[in-house]
TrEMBL record:
This is T9SS C-terminal target domain-containing protein. Residues 247-318 form the Secretion system C-terminal sorting domain. InterPro entries: Secre_tail (IPR026444). Gene3D superfamilies: 2.60.40.2700. Residues 1-20 form the signal peptide. It comes from the Bacteria. Keywords: Signal.
Length: 320
């Protein structure tokens, strides 16, 4: 009886060993370095996928899609029947897995994703101060003197050191001494206060040798001047349009009331200082609600208010 129990025990542990050995996983040098279960290619280059030693192998791939769940079929890769599989950047946006056999056991590995430029290509966001700009064409804007425009790389986590331009550079990559380069502007944000055509060049943090320039068509051309629509922010003299909105008290020390009863509500109220900076912004403001301006530095401000009909009012505020 004891001999039989020992035999059954050995058989049981042998079965567990076979089962444990039939649990394939996929490994590769860059798997998971940036994102879990993902191989991130810097460019079109080779990457070797491997699994543990088994009797047989068959590698499969599935095309990526936005659809959830992914309904694309898993397709066997012709000739991919060894322990390793070589993929390259041309195989980006595909999932890979391997099905193996070991004795009577058949099992498949978890899938891994082959991705490439998972970060977006360079893209730029422009932020303007309400009442200080006017679009005059695709990527071309008139801006009031004394105001500013903030440019941001939309994917700051992707790119490292930046090179910012005030005109389209003559070469890609830009060469040292190019007059379009803005000296010292290396962050993922740049604030423009002068006329120019703005964009940037940057290298990815994960792939330091892989650098990209913003498409010249995406550069933004700014023209700073004293345009008709401007409040002259440099001098504090205001060319007021539609200035029939009641603001009281003015000058104000702490509480300010804006609006008229007939309008009831104002979806947007913005207070701008003389440098063009937004210092206070309220949404869905009602005419009878007090706005606390106690924290504002004494001086002159511009209030831009928009009513529910889309009418825009611009008023000067004196903060005591």
């Amino acid at each position: 009886m004891k001999t039989k129990l020992i035999f059954l025990g050995l058989l049981f542990f042998s079965f567990l060993t076979i089962q444990a050995q039939c649990s394939p996983t996929v490994t590769s040098p860059r798997l998971g370095l940036k994102y879990a279960n993902t191989i991130l290619f810097c460019n079109v280059e080779d990457e070797i996928l491997s699994t543990q030693a088994y009797d047989t192998y068959q590698w499969y791939k599935q095309q990526w899609t936005w659809q959830t769940p992914n309904t694309n079929p898993w397709e066997p890769i012709a000739g991919a029947t060894s322990q390793q599989l070589t993929v390259n950047g041309n195989d980006q946006l595909n999932y890979f897995k391997v099905i193996v056999t070991q004795g009577d056991c058949t099992a498949e590995s978890p899938a891994v994703f082959a991705d490439g430029f998972v970060y977006g290509l360079p893209a730029m966001m422009s932020t303007y101060t309400p009442g200080t700009y006017q679009e005059v064409g695709m990527g071309e804007v008139n801006v009031c003197n004394g105001a500013s425009v903030k440019f941001d790389d939309i994917f700051p986590a992707v790119y490292g050191t930046h090179t910012w331009f005030k005109c389209v550079p003559s070469s890609n990559p830009p060469t040292a001494g190019d007059p379009c380069i803005i000296p010292g502007a290396t962050g993922d944000t740049y604030v423009a206060t002068a006329s120019g055509e703005y964009g940037f060049y940057a290298c990815t943090e994960y792939c330091p040798d892989q650098c990209e320039i913003l498409d010249p068509f995406a550069f933004v051309k700014l023209h700073f001047g004293n345009w008709d629509f401007c409040e002259n922010l440099a001098t504090g003299e205001t060319k007021v349009k539609d200035n029939n909105l009641k603001i009281y008290p003015n000058p104000a020390a702490q509480f300010l009331y804006i609006g008229k009863e007939s309008d009831k509500a104002y979806p947007e109220v913005t207070i701008i200082d003389m440098s063009g900076k937004v210092v206070l912004q309220k949404n869905n403001h009602s005419y009878q609600q007090a706005i606390d301006v106690n924290h504002l530095v004494p001086g002159t401000y511009i209030i831009v208010s928009k009513d529910s009909k889309g009418n825009v009012y611009r008023n000067k505020l004196i903060k005591k």
